[in-house]
Specification:
The protein is an alpha+beta fold and 226 residues long. The chain has helices at residues 30-38, 71-79, 90-99, 112-123, 163-177, 190-193, 202-212; strands at residues 2-4, 21-25, 42-43, 52-54, 59-63, 83-86, 127-134, 137-147, 150-158, 182-186, 198-200. The protein has seven helices and eleven strands.
Length: 226
Protein backbone atom coordinates (compact mmCIF):
# COMPACT_ATOMS: atom_id res chain seq x y z
CA UNK A 1 0.00 0.00 0.00
CA UNK A 2 1.34 3.43 -0.97
CA UNK A 3 0.98 6.35 1.44
CA UNK A 4 0.94 9.71 -0.30
CA UNK A 5 3.17 12.59 0.74
CA UNK A 6 2.99 16.31 0.01
CA UNK A 7 4.36 15.55 -3.45
CA UNK A 8 1.52 15.31 -5.96
CA UNK A 9 2.27 11.95 -7.51
CA UNK A 10 0.55 8.57 -7.74
CA UNK A 11 2.02 5.09 -8.18
CA UNK A 12 1.34 2.95 -11.24
CA UNK A 13 -1.98 1.13 -11.17
CA UNK A 14 -0.12 -2.19 -11.37
CA UNK A 15 0.40 -1.76 -7.62
CA UNK A 16 -3.34 -1.48 -6.88
CA UNK A 17 -4.88 -3.99 -4.50
CA UNK A 18 -7.32 -6.61 -5.88
CA UNK A 19 -10.17 -4.32 -4.79
CA UNK A 20 -8.64 -1.42 -6.71
CA UNK A 21 -7.10 0.66 -3.89
CA UNK A 22 -3.92 2.27 -5.16
CA UNK A 23 -2.95 4.73 -2.40
CA UNK A 24 -3.89 6.18 0.98
CA UNK A 25 -3.69 9.68 2.41
CA UNK A 26 -2.76 12.95 0.80
CA UNK A 27 -5.38 15.65 0.41
CA UNK A 28 -8.21 16.72 -1.89
CA UNK A 29 -6.53 19.80 -3.34
CA UNK A 30 -7.55 20.68 -6.91
CA UNK A 31 -4.03 19.88 -8.12
CA UNK A 32 -4.03 16.39 -6.59
CA UNK A 33 -7.56 15.61 -7.74
CA UNK A 34 -6.83 16.61 -11.33
CA UNK A 35 -3.62 14.58 -11.33
CA UNK A 36 -5.58 11.60 -10.02
CA UNK A 37 -8.26 11.78 -12.70
CA UNK A 38 -5.67 12.18 -15.45
CA UNK A 39 -4.30 8.82 -14.33
CA UNK A 40 -7.64 7.09 -13.97
CA UNK A 41 -7.71 7.38 -10.17
CA UNK A 42 -10.49 8.72 -7.95
CA UNK A 43 -11.04 9.21 -4.19
CA UNK A 44 -13.67 7.22 -2.31
CA UNK A 45 -13.75 6.92 1.47
CA UNK A 46 -16.03 7.17 4.48
CA UNK A 47 -16.30 9.99 6.98
CA UNK A 48 -13.52 9.83 9.56
CA UNK A 49 -11.27 7.49 7.58
CA UNK A 50 -8.09 8.09 5.60
CA UNK A 51 -8.54 9.23 2.00
CA UNK A 52 -8.55 6.12 -0.21
CA UNK A 53 -7.60 6.39 -3.88
CA UNK A 54 -9.02 3.86 -6.33
CA UNK A 55 -8.20 2.49 -9.80
CA UNK A 56 -10.49 -0.54 -10.19
CA UNK A 57 -9.99 -3.27 -12.76
CA UNK A 58 -12.10 -3.71 -14.81
CA UNK A 59 -13.37 -0.17 -15.32
CA UNK A 60 -17.03 0.53 -16.01
CA UNK A 61 -17.43 3.06 -18.83
CA UNK A 62 -19.84 4.32 -21.46
CA UNK A 63 -18.48 4.98 -24.92
CA UNK A 64 -20.50 7.93 -26.17
CA UNK A 65 -21.62 6.15 -29.34
CA UNK A 66 -22.88 3.14 -27.34
CA UNK A 67 -25.67 5.03 -25.57
CA UNK A 68 -28.93 3.06 -25.47
CA UNK A 69 -32.24 4.92 -25.20
CA UNK A 70 -35.32 2.78 -24.57
CA UNK A 71 -38.62 3.39 -26.31
CA UNK A 72 -40.18 4.51 -23.03
CA UNK A 73 -37.38 7.05 -22.45
CA UNK A 74 -37.80 8.42 -25.95
CA UNK A 75 -41.43 9.04 -25.06
CA UNK A 76 -40.36 10.85 -21.89
CA UNK A 77 -37.96 13.00 -23.88
CA UNK A 78 -40.67 13.93 -26.39
CA UNK A 79 -43.11 14.81 -23.62
CA UNK A 80 -41.14 17.90 -22.58
CA UNK A 81 -42.03 17.07 -18.99
CA UNK A 82 -38.53 18.01 -17.87
CA UNK A 83 -36.01 20.71 -18.75
CA UNK A 84 -32.24 20.33 -18.42
CA UNK A 85 -29.58 22.90 -17.56
CA UNK A 86 -25.84 22.81 -16.87
CA UNK A 87 -23.80 24.40 -14.08
CA UNK A 88 -26.61 26.59 -12.75
CA UNK A 89 -26.58 25.21 -9.18
CA UNK A 90 -23.65 22.84 -8.68
CA UNK A 91 -23.71 23.02 -4.85
CA UNK A 92 -27.39 22.03 -4.82
CA UNK A 93 -26.73 19.04 -7.07
CA UNK A 94 -23.86 17.67 -5.00
CA UNK A 95 -25.85 18.27 -1.81
CA UNK A 96 -28.79 16.28 -3.19
CA UNK A 97 -26.45 13.49 -4.26
CA UNK A 98 -25.05 13.48 -0.74
CA UNK A 99 -28.42 13.19 0.99
CA UNK A 100 -30.13 10.76 -1.41
CA UNK A 101 -31.18 7.44 0.06
CA UNK A 102 -29.55 4.55 -1.79
CA UNK A 103 -30.40 0.86 -1.57
CA UNK A 104 -27.86 -1.05 0.47
CA UNK A 105 -26.12 2.09 1.79
CA UNK A 106 -26.53 3.41 5.31
CA UNK A 107 -24.46 6.57 4.78
CA UNK A 108 -22.70 8.59 2.14
CA UNK A 109 -19.17 8.76 0.78
CA UNK A 110 -19.71 12.41 -0.14
CA UNK A 111 -18.18 13.83 3.04
CA UNK A 112 -18.04 17.54 3.82
CA UNK A 113 -14.39 17.42 2.71
CA UNK A 114 -15.39 15.88 -0.63
CA UNK A 115 -18.24 18.33 -1.09
CA UNK A 116 -15.97 21.33 -0.54
CA UNK A 117 -13.26 19.90 -2.82
CA UNK A 118 -15.58 19.36 -5.78
CA UNK A 119 -17.24 22.74 -5.33
CA UNK A 120 -13.73 24.21 -5.56
CA UNK A 121 -13.11 22.27 -8.77
CA UNK A 122 -16.39 23.62 -10.09
CA UNK A 123 -15.31 27.18 -9.29
CA UNK A 124 -12.12 26.48 -11.27
CA UNK A 125 -14.11 25.23 -14.26
CA UNK A 126 -13.28 21.50 -14.08
CA UNK A 127 -16.32 20.04 -12.29
CA UNK A 128 -19.76 20.32 -13.83
CA UNK A 129 -23.36 19.60 -12.93
CA UNK A 130 -26.42 18.61 -14.91
CA UNK A 131 -29.73 19.79 -13.47
CA UNK A 132 -33.16 18.36 -14.30
CA UNK A 133 -36.21 20.51 -13.59
CA UNK A 134 -39.92 19.86 -13.37
CA UNK A 135 -42.25 22.82 -12.80
CA UNK A 136 -39.18 24.91 -11.87
CA UNK A 137 -38.20 22.44 -9.14
CA UNK A 138 -34.88 20.57 -9.10
CA UNK A 139 -35.89 16.91 -9.36
CA UNK A 140 -32.71 15.22 -10.58
CA UNK A 141 -29.14 15.70 -11.63
CA UNK A 142 -25.56 14.52 -11.66
CA UNK A 143 -22.04 15.90 -11.43
CA UNK A 144 -18.54 14.97 -12.49
CA UNK A 145 -15.17 16.09 -13.82
CA UNK A 146 -14.32 16.98 -17.42
CA UNK A 147 -10.78 16.59 -18.79
CA UNK A 148 -10.00 16.65 -22.49
CA UNK A 149 -12.66 14.54 -24.21
CA UNK A 150 -13.51 12.41 -21.19
CA UNK A 151 -16.21 13.03 -18.57
CA UNK A 152 -15.71 11.35 -15.19
CA UNK A 153 -19.11 10.79 -13.62
CA UNK A 154 -19.23 10.99 -9.83
CA UNK A 155 -22.79 10.76 -8.57
CA UNK A 156 -26.42 11.35 -9.52
CA UNK A 157 -29.75 11.74 -7.76
CA UNK A 158 -33.41 11.64 -8.65
CA UNK A 159 -36.55 12.72 -6.85
CA UNK A 160 -39.03 11.60 -9.51
CA UNK A 161 -39.01 8.70 -11.95
CA UNK A 162 -36.74 9.08 -15.00
CA UNK A 163 -35.31 12.48 -13.97
CA UNK A 164 -31.67 11.46 -13.52
CA UNK A 165 -31.84 9.13 -16.53
CA UNK A 166 -33.05 11.98 -18.71
CA UNK A 167 -30.26 14.20 -17.39
CA UNK A 168 -27.67 11.53 -18.17
CA UNK A 169 -28.98 10.92 -21.70
CA UNK A 170 -29.11 14.66 -22.40
CA UNK A 171 -25.51 15.00 -21.17
CA UNK A 172 -24.30 12.14 -23.39
CA UNK A 173 -26.02 13.62 -26.44
CA UNK A 174 -24.47 17.01 -25.72
CA UNK A 175 -20.99 15.57 -25.19
CA UNK A 176 -21.31 13.65 -28.44
CA UNK A 177 -21.77 16.91 -30.33
CA UNK A 178 -18.61 18.25 -28.65
CA UNK A 179 -16.50 15.29 -29.71
CA UNK A 180 -16.27 13.51 -26.34
CA UNK A 181 -15.38 9.82 -26.50
CA UNK A 182 -16.08 8.36 -23.09
CA UNK A 183 -17.88 8.71 -19.77
CA UNK A 184 -16.16 7.03 -16.82
CA UNK A 185 -18.79 5.36 -14.64
CA UNK A 186 -16.18 3.84 -12.27
CA UNK A 187 -17.88 0.69 -10.98
CA UNK A 188 -20.63 -1.52 -12.39
CA UNK A 189 -24.31 -0.70 -11.92
CA UNK A 190 -27.20 -2.35 -13.71
CA UNK A 191 -28.81 1.07 -14.09
CA UNK A 192 -25.97 2.39 -16.27
CA UNK A 193 -25.52 -0.94 -18.05
CA UNK A 194 -29.09 -0.53 -19.32
CA UNK A 195 -27.95 2.74 -20.90
CA UNK A 196 -25.04 1.10 -22.71
CA UNK A 197 -22.16 1.16 -20.21
CA UNK A 198 -19.81 -1.82 -20.08
CA UNK A 199 -16.64 -3.02 -18.37
CA UNK A 200 -13.23 -2.72 -20.02
CA UNK A 201 -9.75 -3.66 -18.74
CA UNK A 202 -8.02 -0.98 -16.66
CA UNK A 203 -5.09 -0.91 -19.09
CA UNK A 204 -7.44 -0.12 -21.98
CA UNK A 205 -9.04 2.66 -19.96
CA UNK A 206 -5.65 4.17 -19.11
CA UNK A 207 -4.59 4.06 -22.76
CA UNK A 208 -7.76 5.93 -23.73
CA UNK A 209 -7.03 8.61 -21.14
CA UNK A 210 -3.49 9.10 -22.47
CA UNK A 211 -4.96 9.80 -25.90
CA UNK A 212 -8.09 11.79 -25.08
CA UNK A 213 -7.03 13.95 -22.14
CA UNK A 214 -4.18 15.61 -24.03
CA UNK A 215 -6.83 17.10 -26.34
CA UNK A 216 -7.84 20.56 -25.06
CA UNK A 217 -11.24 20.63 -23.39
CA UNK A 218 -13.63 23.30 -22.22
CA UNK A 219 -12.57 24.83 -18.90
CA UNK A 220 -15.20 27.06 -17.35
CA UNK A 221 -18.94 26.87 -16.87
CA UNK A 222 -21.04 24.83 -19.29
CA UNK A 223 -24.10 27.05 -18.83
CA UNK A 224 -24.27 28.06 -22.50
CA UNK A 225 -21.87 25.47 -23.95
CA UNK A 226 -23.87 22.22 -24.05
Amino acid sequence: MFFLTDKIQFPSSVWASPEGIIAVGGDLSPERLLEAYKNGIFPWFNEGSEILWWAPDPRFVLFINDLKISKSMRQVMRSNKFSVTYDTCFPDVIRNCKTSNRAGQSGTWITKEMEDAYCKLHDLGHAHSVEVWEDQKLVGGLYGISLGKVFFGESMFTKVSNASKLGFITLVNGLSLKGFKLIDCQDYTGYLESLGADEIPRTEFENILKKEIVIPGKVGKWTDWL
